[in-house]
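Entry for the shared binder. Reason: the reviewer on the internal report wants the predicted structure included alongside the sequence.
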Amino acid sequence: MEIVHIPINKISPSPFQPRETFDKEELEELAESIKEFDLLNPILIRSTGDDTYQIIAGERRWRAAQFVGMKKIYAIIKDIDDSRQRIESLIENIHRKDLYMIEKGRGVLEIFRAEGIIQSPKSLANIINSIQRKKSRNLSLIPTEEKIDEICSKIHIKPNTVRLWLEAASVEPEIIQKELGKSVEDRIPERVLSRLSTIADPNLQKSIYAKIVELDMGKDQASKFVSQIKKIPDVERDAILTQGIPVEVLGDAKDGYSIEIPKDEIDAVKKAVAVGKKKSAEILAKPIIEERGRHRRNLQAHSKIIEMLDNLFCPWCGKPASTHLRWTCHSDETWEEVREQAKENYDDASKRTEVNGRFMPKKK
């Protein structure tokens, strides 16, 4: 392919670039190299019409060239459409060693979406894990799994690595924003992000992340910490995560790991736990909390009933059971309407601080 000299202001970055941050010092170093030795490797671009171009690969070189005031840049023009450019640009970029795991995960996710796979990053990671288990047991894959497996092969990345990247990209947006805003040396170990994705509760995930950052944990200690903190009773766990108490993760893979609290901090933990239990008891004793619990259980029960009724029908006439079951007091309401009213009651109770006597049985 022919190398051409293109005016830099005629070129725009790719909208499919997975990198979300460009390290200023690295760009300056690259710029100094370009200033001294010129651009050794041309960038790859495509024509977008009207004498303008879009980068397929080489955005860092393009930015660094602008930094030193170059008016033109060496480039190779490739004739591809939007869809193909998106795939090629993403594949080229996720193979860069200096790209952060979160960015690689987002890049991989875009590749899957470009191929028609629209699952969330965590769901996709779980599917890839399931595919690997099935393949190891020589079990057949369903069509969607086959397509996902084919995409993993096309991008030439091991499925397990793709899974880790997707898990990293699935952690809470607040955590991602904080990590991408840090310098490379200040970020937490990449694989710890994958471990954090196993925490389903968003607030708990953020609290555990904050503790890892606070104690400046290394990869092994942080991974073990995530695994063990989930096994600790709620009140004790909350004390460790919210009271600023230092902890150590001890043990090994053979005998198991445990979270240890320094002896001089044990009294502080006991006090925090006692305070936490007292606050929990006070909250649970409030009548409105009891009513909210009733509405929540009522909503859950109605939801489950409807799910079960979908599979029930009269063994004589074949009519769905939901057409026969009615409340005696509101016989004209359908189960769907009853469930919606139950949801409205629960939402209302969640906003109120006083109970509604209609729903609270009189205590004897």
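Summary line for the report: Residues 173-282 form one domain.
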